[in-house]
Amino acid sequence: MKLKSILAALIALFTVSGCNSQTVKNTGNMKNSIVIFFSHAGDNYSVGNIEVGNTKIVADYISELTGAAQYEIVTHKYDGMAYNPLIQLAKEEANKGELPPYEGSAPDLSKYDTVFIGGPVWWGTYPQVMFTLFKDINLDGKTVYPFTTHEGSGLANCVSDVKKAFPKANVQKGFSIYGHEVRTEKAKVEKWIKGL
Questions:
Q1: Which domains, from first to last, does the chain contain?
Q2: Does the pLDDT value for residue 147 go beyond 90?
Q3: Distance of CA 47 to CAs 37, 53, 73, 77, 156, Å?
């Protein structure tokens, strides 16, 4: 009788494991990873007024698929702004090289080997508030994966700007996804993560 119970338990275990074969698990080189991102909720191009920003959704997918921790860059400077005034402000910040403040303090990255950096593309690169944080962190020797959400810009200058900000980091090829796709195209993020 014990043998039958053991066999039944093993069959159940293999059946459950087989059901999860499509799920991407935390790979060996992703154990000590973190997702650093800025995401804009509210009025967004193409998707309207959203409660959760497009980049936040992608960051959540990455954490789910890799087990990565998260650090969200938060600023209240853009809260409640309609899309057109927001992009005008973002353009002015980029042209002037402004570095808007972010909430809280920079994350301690000493225990992370892999860093995902993501944000929307505003005027050809990440929002300026991300560059404020970049001045406060050190990614020397870390593997860095830039990613963006956009509506036609792709990666724009984000990868080259990350390389410029962190010349001693191992910056990898980036990933971009349309903002209007993030809620329905999780498979694109999964494919990217599987290929790392």
A1: 24-194 (3.40.50.360)
A2: yes
A3: 19, 10, 21, 21, 20
